[in-house]
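[Discussion] Sanity-checking designs against the backbone

I'm trying to build intuition for which residues belong where. Below is a structure token string of 991 positions. I'd appreciate it if someone posts a full sequence so I can compare it with mine line by line.
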């Protein structure tokens, strides 16, 4: 039955509270004689009173009041400044003010005008004879500033009503009353109540900014003074009416005669349409109570001394304000009381069936959610009535699932303030302190927000996309720690790292953090990574990545032992700001160490537990630009490096699997048997859960294990990740089979799409790059379920812009004239500029024969060793495929034989044509060391190779097959990885 509501496809779009209440009243012109104006101010400034009133209700933007005492003054004011509202106060016997108002309406038809009149018999009589069509409302001044707030809010509500209801489903309270005196006293009372309630429900927001915005979602109050007006409003907004409060005796149409039963007729018409909407009838005739009972409405006696109190109580009980109270439908007694969504979620399955049934069959739950501005979930639950489901337990599950989904959505993409009673399973990202989140922290918050705003991430059947649970200790905690423990003196000195760390470990973190940490442990129940997040790290233009420490601590049952390890790790990260490497790096990047402040990220470690070891199914780094595209890959499709176990393996330069997320079937490393055995991962990192950190040191990897892949096989963590080498048939089979070496190919994930890794990475890179407006690098990890059910969770760990000075190339290489060039390739790999190479080694082409290739390889090996000894690099040019295992196709060198080359060129000859290899034999090394690889076939007009220039230069060394030329000044090498173009300029040509 539940499948009918497709909960797994339910996508709650977050409410954009910032888009609500966009039209405001900022400036009010008050037209009154000096005496009335003074009385209104009650011997004090009206601005100040309104400000205090706004402040007490947590409202923003109190309006400014200006005063005018004559018609000319008022018109002059209106010409000199923009006003949003005009309030006229006619004194006894004055008619001039009505004329003034009409003139204003003529010239400024868009400005609402309100009459505020002191209540007296004479005024009422005269008002009856006046034409009031120019005025929006008439109010009766009873000496209470609350009324001014109500007038402003009533008009703002009217201005924003249609937009806000259509935009997010804001609720409407309809007040139907034609007595000026009466609505002038009810409205302030009602507004005060609604604004106080919205103050309370705004505490469900996750931080102060959201709390203020959320108040914009409060129900709007609309005043109608005739039957037609009231029913018109009801018809237009009937799906969003929170409740109706109506008088009984009022006219049917404007200016018409009063109908003694108008209110009753209105209730009857509404009840016909909606059996559940709450109705309140107010009347000074107690006989009308019988009608109220007939239409299921509450009744308030206008003659009652405590009418205000009655109205608040009944609105609170019936319109879904305040706590949600589960009642016994027979006796009406309270069974349970719920203050917020989290409490409702926790109690759902404990409420007796008959009470639960009573509340859902009267739409109470959705009304309560509406009144608290939780529109997406209220809208989802409203149509699911008892009749549509008729199963109490299914209904409980449905509401529970919807709340969970909604809370997850609300927590996503928001930096919440950490509150112990709030942080739970559905919390995502919280902060402790008020300082900055630091670079990594900002990046994480950004990714979380990115995932939230792109529903495509939700559309994978067997994969969830998330960030690990995170709490950030903001930079102000670092400042407090440094100052209270007097650590700056030792930290800024030239003392050894170990000494600095010892001082930091002895220091004390603020006591108030202890309980917060315990709450975090209870929720996460997994190992915790303690990462640095400094102000400068991952900042848009400064590559500080990897300079500071990251510690991991195991999850222990002994909370105090875990607290000790966590404290040590935090202090270790703080200390790493002042380690020697960091200071040197600061100097190199012209930063001042005093400006560096450290936030610390506490984050659940992604992974599964295998005995005393803990690691993820895979970790990786994805970049949105691929400077070494091969085959039909394109530079802008990006590139991914993937490995089994913790990401430290990738950071340390381990042998990872490299693939393009748009071509996951084309993995060069696994395309040939020999390469797959030689160039795939053989070891991986795991967290050692048995290491309790007593030997805490400044090496942040002290409790990580580097293990052979065989150990992962024993752990049973290689499902879908490994293939098996069959030595008898000399073949690698995708999947796990007994015996045979296990090869980390990720074949089932990349080629057979068991887990949608490639598609998730396509989305992450696409949206990351489009929202950062520059190429990005993303770190990620994923865990596959232990149940072998092909499900898993993909975690985004970090995003940062790619800032590498080498990669900033913005000129068009095609515009450089050939006469300035030594080499041009229209099919090159690599990216960036090199300007420190003076040497070229090339194979002589006169009398070249492929049969000599093995001898040429030996000569190159000797030369290369000399370059390594001197610490110099060179450009290597030769015919055919470099590194080919078939000597007839090219020179059969291995990487160590050419490892000092920084550009390698395949130059085809007229009489020796071989399809270019695109550097595939050395691919791993090319990409790791940023080596350029040029393919040139000058005889086909594909590129340029100015060999005559090289032949004319004196040789430093010349062997039988090779020539080594050295220039007096460096040549400049430029490579554009996006266009696959590369050039080497002649020495001195750059000038």
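Best answer:
Here's mine. Compare freely.
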């Amino acid at each position: 039955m539940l499948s009918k509501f497709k909960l797994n496809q339910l996508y709650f779009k977050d409410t954009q509270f910032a888009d609500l209440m966009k039209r405001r009243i900022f400036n009010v012109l008050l037209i009154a004689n000096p005496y009335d104006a003074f009385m209104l101010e009650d011997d004090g400034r009206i601005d100040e009173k309104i400000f205090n009133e706004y402040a007490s209700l947590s409202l923003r933007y109190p309006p400014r009041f200006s005063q005018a005492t004559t018609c000319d003054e008022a018109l002059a004011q209106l010409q000199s400044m923009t006003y949003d509202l005009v309030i006229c106060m006619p004194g006894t016997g004055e008619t001039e003010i009505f004329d003034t108002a009409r003139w204003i309406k003529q010239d400024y038809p868009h400005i609402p005008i309100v009459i505020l009149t002191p209540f007296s018999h004479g005024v009422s009589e005269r008002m009856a004879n006046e034409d009031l069509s120019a005025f929006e409302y008439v109010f009766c001044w009873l000496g209470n500033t609350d009324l001014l707030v109500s007038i402003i809010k009533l008009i703002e509500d009217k201005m924003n009503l249609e937009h806000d209801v259509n935009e997010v489903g804001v609720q409407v309270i309809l007040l139907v009353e034609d007595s000026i005196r009466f609505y002038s006293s009810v409205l302030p009372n009602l507004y005060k109540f609604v604004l106080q309630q919205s103050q309370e429900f705004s505490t469900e927001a996750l931080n102060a900014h959201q709390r203020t915005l959320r108040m914009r979602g409060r129900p709007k109050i609309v005043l109608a003074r005739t039957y037609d007006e009231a029913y018109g409003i009801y018809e237009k907004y009937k799906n969003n009416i929170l409740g109706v409060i109506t008088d009984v005796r009022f006219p049917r149409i404007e200016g018409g005669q009063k109908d003694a039963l108008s209110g009753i007729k209105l209730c009857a018409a509404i009840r016909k349409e909606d059996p559940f909407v709450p109705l309140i009838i107010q009347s000074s005739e107690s006989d009308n109570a019988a009608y109220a009972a007939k239409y299921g409405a509450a009744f308030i006696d206008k003659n009652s001394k405590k009418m205000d109190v009655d109205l608040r109580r009944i609105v609170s009980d019936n319109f879904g304000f305040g706590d949600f109270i589960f009642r016994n439908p027979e006796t009406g007694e309270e069974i349970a009381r719920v203050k917020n969504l989290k409490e409702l979620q926790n109690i759902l399955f404990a409420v007796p069936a008959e009470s639960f049934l009573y509340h859902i069959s009267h739409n109470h739950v959705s009304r309560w959610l509406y009144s608290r501005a939780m529109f997406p979930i209220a809208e989802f639950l409203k149509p699911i009535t008892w009749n549509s489901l008729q199963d109490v337990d299914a209904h409980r599950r449905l509401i529970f699932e919807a709340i969970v989904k909604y809370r997850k959505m609300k927590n996503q993409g928001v930096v919440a303030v950490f509150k112990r009673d709030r942080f739970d399973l559905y919390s995502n990202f919280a902060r402790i302190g008020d300082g900055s989140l630091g670079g990594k922290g900002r990046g994480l918050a950004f990714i979380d927000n990115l995932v939230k705003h792109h529903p495509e991430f939700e559309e994978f059947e067997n994969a969830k996309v998330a960030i690990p649970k995170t709490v950030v200790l903001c930079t102000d905690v670092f400042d407090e720690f440094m100052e209270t423990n007097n650590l700056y003196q030792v930290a800024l000195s030239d003392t050894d790292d170990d000494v600095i760390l010892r001082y930091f470990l002895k220091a004390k973190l603020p006591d108030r953090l202890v309980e917060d940490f315990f709450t975090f442990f209870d929720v996460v129940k997994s190992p915790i990574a303690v990462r640095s997040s400094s102000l400068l790290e991952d900042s848009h233009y400064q590559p500080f990545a990897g300079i500071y420490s990251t510690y991991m601590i195991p999850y222990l049952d002994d909370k105090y032992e875990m607290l000790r390890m966590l404290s040590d790790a935090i202090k270790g990260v703080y200390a790493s700001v002042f380690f020697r490497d960091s200071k040197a790096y600061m100097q190199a990047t012209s930063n001042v160490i005093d400006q560096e402040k450290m936030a610390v990220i506490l984050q659940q470690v992604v992974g599964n537990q295998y005995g005393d070891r803990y690691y993820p199914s895979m970790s990786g780094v994805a970049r949105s630009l691929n400077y070494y595209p091969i085959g039909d890959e394109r530079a802008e499709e990006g590139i991914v490096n993937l490995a089994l176990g913790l990401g430290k393996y990738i950071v340390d330069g381990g042998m990872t699997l490299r693939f393009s997320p748009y071509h996951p079937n084309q993995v060069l490393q696994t395309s040939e048997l020999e390469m797959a055995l030689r160039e795939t991962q053989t070891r991986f990192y795991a967290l050692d859960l048995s290491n309790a950190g007593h030997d805490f040191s400044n090496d942040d990897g002290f409790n990580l294990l580097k293990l052979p892949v065989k150990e992962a096989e024993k752990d049973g963590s290689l499902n879908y990740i490994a293939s098996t080498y069959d030595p008898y048939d000399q073949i690698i089979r995708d999947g796990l089979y007994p015996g045979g070496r296990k090869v980390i190919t990720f074949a089932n994930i990349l080629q057979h799409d068991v887990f949608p890794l490639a598609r998730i990475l396509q989305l992450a890179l696409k949206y990351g790059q489009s929202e950062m407006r520059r190429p990005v690098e993303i770190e990620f990890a994923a865990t596959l379920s232990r149940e072998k059910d092909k499900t898993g969770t993909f975690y985004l760990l970090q995003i940062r812009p790619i800032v590498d000075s080498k990669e900033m190339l913005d000129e068009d290489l095609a515009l450089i004239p050939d006469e300035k060039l030594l080499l041009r390739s229209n099919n090159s790999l690599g990216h960036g500029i090199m300007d420190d190479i003076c040497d070229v080694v090339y194979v002589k082409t006169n009398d070249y024969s492929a049969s000599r290739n093995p001898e040429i390889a030996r000569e190159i090996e000797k030369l290369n060793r000399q370059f390594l000894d001197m610490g110099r690099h060179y450009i290597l040019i030769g015919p055919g495929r470099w590194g080919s295992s078939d000597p007839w196709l090219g020179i059969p060198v291995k990487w160590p034989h050419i490892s000092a080359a920084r550009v390698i060129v395949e130059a085809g000859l007229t009489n020796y044509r071989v399809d270019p290899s695109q550097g595939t034999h050395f691919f791993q090394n090319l990409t790791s060391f940023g080596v350029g690889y040029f393919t040139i076939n000058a005889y086909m007009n594909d590129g340029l190779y100015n060999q005559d220039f090289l032949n004319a230069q004196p040789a430093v060394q010349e062997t039988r097959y090779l020539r080594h030329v050295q220039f007096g000044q460096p040549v400049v090498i430029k490579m554009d990885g996006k266009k696959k173009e590369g050039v080497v300029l002649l020495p001195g040509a750059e000038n």
